[in-house]
């Protein structure tokens, strides 16, 4: 069956407008409004000229909160602690997940379906169960709660998200390009750096962004394994009992903007295709 015959069998897509199904449009707008209303409130109150300890009532527009986003030193320290923790856990997740997912997609491995099920299994566990299990493991290893335990915990629970995101990207990867470059005499290291890695860059970026956001957002596992380390979610949870400063909203908005920029970059496809003949013949 040719491509033209397949296209003829596919149902034609109807053009959609507000007049076609008005209730569906209104329903969709309502769902998106409910979904993004908390985010809009966070961004809005980062510009609030708060007159009390709790930044919950609108008093007027101001930019002074953004002029000094790190006015609260304890909040700033917690923010940079979470950022460093998330970056380190993301790098470790990518280093562990990339060869594992490439092996599962590239080669026929006995028991591959069981391994993939084990990758999905941590995603179904409640965080409190995962945190308690990690704490028990650290006790058996005589590893006290603290920075090392926190890095290991964040790496382990972010690993499944990273691996699944990379696996989805590798599912559409054209492995024949690597085979062609190898036939032309390219070394494995050059094939990886000039063919595999550039084509996987959007997937790596999206997987890193997912791991980064999950690590920055984690509260349950961090509260169990952090020890004396105070992360950004732990600091915010404690601040709700004493004071909600506008800097909480400012830093949260900064994280949102960084996530949006990274998300836009991850959705971009690489501009051009790698030529296997060039990789195979240039300098090897």
Query: Proportion of β residues?
Result: under 5%
The number of distinct structural domains comes to 2
Low-confidence stretches: 1-7
Secondary structure category? mainly alpha
Tell me the Rg in angstroms: 24 Å
Task: Name the helix and strand elements from N-terminus to C-terminus, one letter apiece.
Answer: HHHHHHHHHHHHH
> Could you tell me the number of beta strands?
0
User: Could you give the distance between the termini?
Assistant: 42 Å
Overall pLDDT metric: 81
Inertia-based shape: globular
At the fourth level of CATH, the homologous superfamily of the largest domain is MetI-like
Q: Count the helices. How many? A: 13
Which CATH architecture of the largest domain is right? Orthogonal Bundle
Report the CATH C-level class of the largest domain. Answer: Mainly Alpha
Oligomer: single chain
Instruction: Indicate the CATH topology of the largest domain.
Output: MetI-like fold
Percent of residues in helical segments? over 70%
